[in-house]
Amino acid sequence: MPRRVLFVVWTTPLITVGRRTFIADALRRAGALSVVDAKAEWPRVSFEEILRLQPEFLVFASAHAAETTA
C-alpha cells in the first residue's frame, strides 16, 4: 500500500504538488502517493485541508531555483 505524503513545495503560501507534476510522478515511483489529488499543477492548500487529508509523511523542498546562486 502506498505511503500517503504531503510534499510541500512552498510554505508561504502553502503550495503542494498536483497529480501531473514531476514530483508527483517521483513519489509514485518511490511507492508513495500525494494526499492532494488536484488538477492544478501547484495547488495552494490550507492547514485545515492538511489535517483533513491526514498524510503519513510531510516532505519539504529545501531549495528553490530562485534561491540558488551560480
Give a quick rundown of the structure.
With 70 residues, the protein is α/β, with parallel strands linked by helices. The chain has helices spanning 22-29, 47-53, and strands spanning 3-8, 32-34, 57-60.
Can you tell me about this structure?
Strands 2-1-3 form a 3-stranded parallel sheet, covered by helices on one side. It is α/β, with parallel strands linked by helices. The protein has helices spanning 22-29, 47-53, and strands at 3-8, 32-34, 57-60. The N and C termini lie far apart (41 Å).
Mean pLDDT: 90
User: Mind describing the biggest β-sheet?
Assistant: 3 strands, parallel
Query: What distance lies between the first and last C-alpha atoms, to the nearest angstrom?
Result: 41 Å
Provide a count of the helices: 2
Uncertain regions spanning at least 5 consecutive residues: none
Q: Which structural class should the secondary elements be placed in?
A: alpha/beta
The sequence of SSEs as H and E is EHEHE
Strand content: 15-25%
Physical arrangement of strands within the biggest beta sheet: 2-1-3
What's the helix and strand layout?
Layout: E1 3-8, H1 22-29, E2 32-34, H2 47-53, E3 57-60
Parallel strand pairs: 1-2, 1-3
